[in-house]
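User: Can you help me understand a structure? I only have the sequence.
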Amino acid sequence: MTGPLVVPVGRYLGMLPVGAGLRHVVRVGGRRVELADDEQLVWALAHGVPGAPDLGGWDRAALMRHLPGEAGADATIDRLVGGGLLLEVAGPVEEFARSVRLLPQALGLGNDPVEGRRFRLGHPGAALVAVPAEIFFLWSWAGLDDNLWTACVRGAKTALPDGSGDPRALATTILGALHQLLSTNAACLDAAPA
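Assistant: Let's start by predicting it. Here is the structure, written out as tokens:
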């Protein structure tokens, strides 16, 4: 990773009627945010591209590599960061984890038949991603907590399979795997309540 990770915040609701036309709409916390086409493209690509070799370090440069010919993409990224729809994560993992909630958007499909210590996420008949046990367990109940940090603290206390008992280590692990979940829509991030 050469720069801060870029992560999207919010859940895409689709193109919805706004006035006389249709607009892309994202729900962030309790608010609906309308996006122009260029903003929606950047926001969507901030989730990552499934299988991309740079998915573990999805920073601004990785995002820009997947936006060929998009003049003004840096300004669009800056606008989305300013509006709370994108985060650039460079600081302490605890600060990031306190600012967001991790919400599952797919189903747990059980153990991977080839790698039994990994768990598949997806939809019946369509696994989207297979993740290690600690990611699976955190993914499965993190949405019950007010923020990702609280979920990591709880996970560390309940002795998740990583065995560390350290919420910071667990938060770092989930941050490293986050784009695997986001790029496949197995999960989304939402703003944590204030």
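Now, to help you interpret it: The first strand starts at residue 5 and ends at 8. The chain has a mean pLDDT of 92. Let me know which part you'd like to focus on.
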